[in-house]
Structure formats: structure tokens, C-alpha cells
Design goal:
This protein is mostly beta strands and 290 residues long. The chain has helices spanning 12-27, 32-43, and strands spanning 54-56, 62-65, 69-73, 76-78, 84-88, 94-96, 101-105, 110-119, 125-135, 145-146, 161-162, 167-168, 181-185, 191-200, 207-217, 227-232, 235-241, 250-255, 263-272, 278-289. The chain has 3 domains: 1-50, Neutral Protease, domain 2, CATH 1.10.390; 54-135, Immunoglobulins (Immunoglobulin-like, Sandwich), CATH 2.60.40; 145-289, Galactose-binding domain-like (Jelly Rolls, Sandwich), CATH 2.60.120. It contains 2 helices and 20 strands. 38% of the residues are buried.
Length: 290
Amino acid sequence: ALTTYMTSTTDYAAARTATLSAATDLYGAGSTEYNQVATAWAGVNVGSLPSGGVTVTNPGNQSTALNGSANLQIKATGGTGTLTYSATGLPTGLSISSSGLITGTATAAGTYNVTVTAKDSSGKSGAASFTWTVSTGGGGSCTPAQLLGNQGFESGTAPWTASSGVIDNSSGQAAHSGSYKAWLDGYGSSHTDSLSQTVTIPAGCKATLSFWLHIDTAESGSTQYDKLSVQVNGTTLKTYSNVDAAAGYQQRTFDLSAYAGQTVTLKFTGTEDSSLQTSFVIDDTAVQTG
């Protein structure tokens, strides 16, 4: 491009045209490489994104404690057909699935320069780059703390956001401790309840989500009719159902260390079908750092 298409008076717009022409010569118009060049120029406000191209949403810089787990969904729009994802520069121990989910355990400290790419069925692609820091978190830099407010639901609703009637002290279902709990569903008809709270997990911290869950159902058999999803920032950690019903409460725990340095929304969503009740009862929640 420099010797064939550019001169001493070439400006940014002309440089874009020159590099696209070179990409066309080498790889063909509309190729992955062509679209990557056009996307890079669009990223500095020179020209527009390639028509019909793929745009990857940049997730922002990431931070994970050493030996902490990662769970990051990469998202992209545009293109034709199913998008396939790949990545370079991921921290040691992490990998990306073809659907764009980055998971694994970060086993080596350092700062990594990551580029994620999404390619459509016609070969067009888009990319986004960010850094991923894996920190040792030593030296007492993380102060142990419980991050959720009103974790046992004894102080009203705030700071939870909940469907009407979810946080209650009725006798229909017992609390794990105290008087109040969060009771999702249990109507025996088509119904959806939700419960959520947003917290910030300090960088360099390990974090654990825990809660006590009781599932009571009138359903029978091994078919999942009524479900409770546990999500963080839209990523589903686990889905429970009427099949998981048991007497009393059981404590559930999840590692949230992958979200260190981020503001996250924890959300429970209960969905019930048209007949036979299933109650999902949650109490004594916590997001503990340390």
C-alpha cells in the first residue's frame, strides 16, 4: 500500500482507501482481512464500518485474581448466518468457545493483550481488543467484605429490585432464618418473578456468591416444567427446576472472582408454567470477598 497507492500528500481518508485497495489485492474484496482493515479505520472515525460487516462489542478491560475462574460472554452483531468466535492473547488457562464464551481458570499472573474475533458464514469478520490483568491479589490488598445489602430480606425491599410480593414473611413457606425470605412463583399458573441487586466487586479480590434455596413443588417426574435461573450480568450460572425439589433449604455457592473489578447485577428469575405450583424460596444471600 505504501509504495503502490500512497504518495507524500496522502491524508487519512486516502490512506484508508489505499490500505483497503491493498487488502483487496492480497485477500479479495469483502474478505476477513478487508473487513478488519475497514473496521480498524472506522474505529478512529475514518470511514464507516464495512457494509454487512460484523461488529464485536468491546467488553472493556478485564481483571481476574490468580487461580480465579473466568466467565465472559463476547457479543457481536451483523454479518450473515451464525457467528463463530475466536481469540488470541488470552490469559494462560482461559479459552473461548465457538459461541463466544470465555471460561477457565487463570493460572499465570500478568497483563495480557486480548483480541476477540467474530466471523460470519460468508467469511466477514469483526474484532475487538482489550487487556486482561491476572493479579496475585496478595499483600492484604483485598479487604474481606460482604457486598449484598439486606441479604436476609429482613429490612424491607431495598436495595433489591423484586417483583411484587416476592419478599414476604407469610407462613406459606418458612424463612431459612429470621422472618422474611424471597418467594418466587408458587402460583400454579403461568407466572414469572424476578429478584436482583447490583454490586461492585473490588479488583484483585476473590468473590463467592452464596444463598440458601428451598424448592417445593406439586410437579412429579423428571420433566423440568418450572425453572429458576441464577444470572450475573446476563450470564446464566445455573438453572434449577421442579426436578431439584427437596425438603428444607440447601446452600448454593458460585465463584464470582472472574468479575473482580466490575459492577455486576445478580438476578434470580423464576418461571412457572400453566399448572401445578413450584416455589423457589431464597434466603440468607451473600457475595463475600477475600
